[in-house]
Design brief:
Pfam families: DUF4097. By secondary structure, the protein is mainly beta. The protein is built from 2 helices and 26 strands. The relative contact order is 0.10.
Length: about 280
Amino acid sequence: MPTFTTPGPIDVNLSLVVANVRITAGERATTEVEVRPGSSSSSSTKMAEETQVEFANGQLRIRTPKNLTRWLGSKTGRIEVEIALPAGSRLDGDNGAGDLDAEGPLGETRYKTGFGAIRLGDTGKARLTTGAGDITVARVAGDAEISTGTGQLHVGAVEGVATVKNSSGETWVGDAGGALRANSANGDIAVDRARGGAALKTANGSLRVLEAVRGRVSLETAAGSLEVGIPTGTAAWLDLDVKNGAVRNSLGGSSGPAEGEETVEVRARTYFGDIVIHRA
């Protein structure tokens, strides 16, 4: 198991073919790496043997040769990669297929896998992509771009501007600190709290913002219900359109916002479904 002296956060660069990656970040002054076969097959053993681990100038590089699949033919193996490193380390990774599991605080994280789940705790600015698989992030301390082709997409909190895309599956964001844009072709989108405005759009599914604190909130679906919660003391401008459904607005009338009062502009469109506006 290679061990490197790393008194502070490092940069990690991963270039992998088929691998499950597990990262543990914490208060430590060393970085440890383990690469092992993911199965008992000879192809997995060969892949583990050919994977290179290098560390220099604060950068850890782990690389499986891309042409290794040509050597192995149809019997492509898989490996397991485990990394223990200092908190706040940055990750830039590309993986043909496999999961990423990370515990502990990371710095900026950029990771792409063709197939597999991505699970993170706290991270800095994030750009995460999987062709198919769930994505779960506890907290992003910065901007976020997160995308899955199919799967569940759950983000506990984003402090910055966020763009999330889910072609097919459920999407949930707990607390959006900056402007949020979320799109789906097929699936519900729910936001617990939007503090900087939100634009949600899906072709098939329901859209919900349980608490719209300020800014502009836009919801659009062809088939599904729409729901927006407005905090007490916040004025709301409403532009609602439903073709086949009902509008239920329990806010009551108002002559306009008082001086210093927060305002929310709501634009909601659905062809089949109800629109519900209520106090949060």
